[in-house]
Write a structure and sequence with these properties.
By secondary structure, this protein is an alpha+beta fold. The protein contains 19 helices and 9 strands. It has helices spanning 8-26, 28-47, 49-57, 77-88, 117-122, 140-152, 158-170, 175-187, 199-208, 210-216, 233-242, 304-318, 328-335, 343-348, 360-367, 376-381, 397-407, 422-429, 436-449, and strands at 67-74, 93-99, 107-113, 126-132, 225-228, 263-279, 282-298, 354-358, 385-389. A 5-stranded mixed beta sheet has the order 2-3-4-1-5. A hairpin with a 7-residue loop joins strand 2 (93-99) and strand 3 (107-113). The radius of gyration is 23 Å and the shape is globular. Bound molecules: 2-oxoadipic acid and nickel (II) ion. Nickel (II) ion binds next to strand 1 and strand 5.
Amino acid sequence: MTQGFVSPDEIRLAFSQAMSRMYRAEVPLYGDLLDIVATTNARALAVDPALREQLAAQGELERLNDERHGAIRIGSATELSLMRRLFAVMGMLPVGYYDLAAAGLPVHSTAFRPIEPAALARCAFRIFCSLLRIDLIADADLRAQAEAILDARQIVSDETVDFIARYERDGGLTSEQAESFVLHALETFRWHGEALVDHETYTAFNEAHRLIADIVCFRGPHINHLTPRTLDIDAAQAEMIARGIRAKAVIEGPPRRTVPILLRQTSFQALEEPILFRSGAAIVAGAHTARFGEIEQRGIALTPRGRDLYDAILAEADGARTASGAGYQDRLAATFAQFPDDLASLRTEGLAYFTYAPTQEGARLLAAGKLPAGSVEELVDSGVLTATPITYEDFLPVSAAGIFRSNLGSEAETRLAAESSQADFEGALGASCLDPFGLYLDQEQASLELLEPIPP
Ligand code: OOG
Ligand code: NI
């Protein structure tokens, strides 16, 4: 880091904390969710001293209840590329491409996130960012109107753009600049109680798709949820229900397992909030539903082979999904019995990613240049290497679609007969989306390269 510049990790941390404060103030129910997470996390730690120790060793205890992600929805290519530049200031790069048209949603998405393990450890905050597929507005007049509205709005202030340009030119921001950048950038994601359009226009977009109204009818991409980490998502879900909070019917992702894989998520349903619509001198009171709260629990990252197995099993269980969610969790668990549920099998069957490090004995042999020849497998078996699971840091398209749908008022699935294209998305973004599998593989490989025998 060049002297005088603050690390992008610190800017991301300050930004995520500012977002959390803003969202708690704007959506009081979200504060209740944080409370549930803190309580259930404390309970999970109390009954599992080994988990507490492990989290303490990773320096995770202090950050345990911090937000891990949030989400926004963007209207145009210009806006998306601006978001890419804005999040780059905070060390967040586009990773992954999520096609949601397959699940009936007129958007496709990426996640802006830190990619280095140390950066993730400092602050894992990510933004799931969806771009409107404007071509999916069937009515030509409505589509033209959407284009005109999106062209005319400015979602990032001039001050923020100046900071972005300065960051790009100088390669960093001083702490004073960073502080000011965070305050200005935050404004882009604030809720606006007044729509950009009149009530009729809102209704027309809403009828085309609720997501389209949410993206097009407001001054900017309000943050629509934040998501802290839970150590026990089943307990947190039960606690939401016990407190009378309208929780999503099913937990998305894999079932509860001995070795957690990928990502499990649930949310409380989006709130109906009052909105003012102006038409000429008249003001019409209405409502809009967009904002919710979510929780996530992460497990081990799967290889393409593991992911294929996951997708196949999930598709099999999906037939059992009903709107009420009744019976789904049991059916899911039964179907997932096919997925190996111990670390050794996940590793030896090439289903998940690990980093490798020498044991004490291994370190002694390595220093002496006497690491025995053999496969990684044999070295783990003989106690020379330890294998540590790599945590999944990305999202899941089927889960994301489930989260979207439950917050759009219907968990029923429809399909849009639309080809979505990563190339189109990347064109709008002005960059390519990094391949998540590549990042995990690099991390695994890097750990193995450290074991290369040191030449005598
Ligand atoms: C994004 C929904 C997806 C997740 O965690 O998978 C999501 C949205 O509602 O904009 O947040
Ligand atoms: Ni989310």
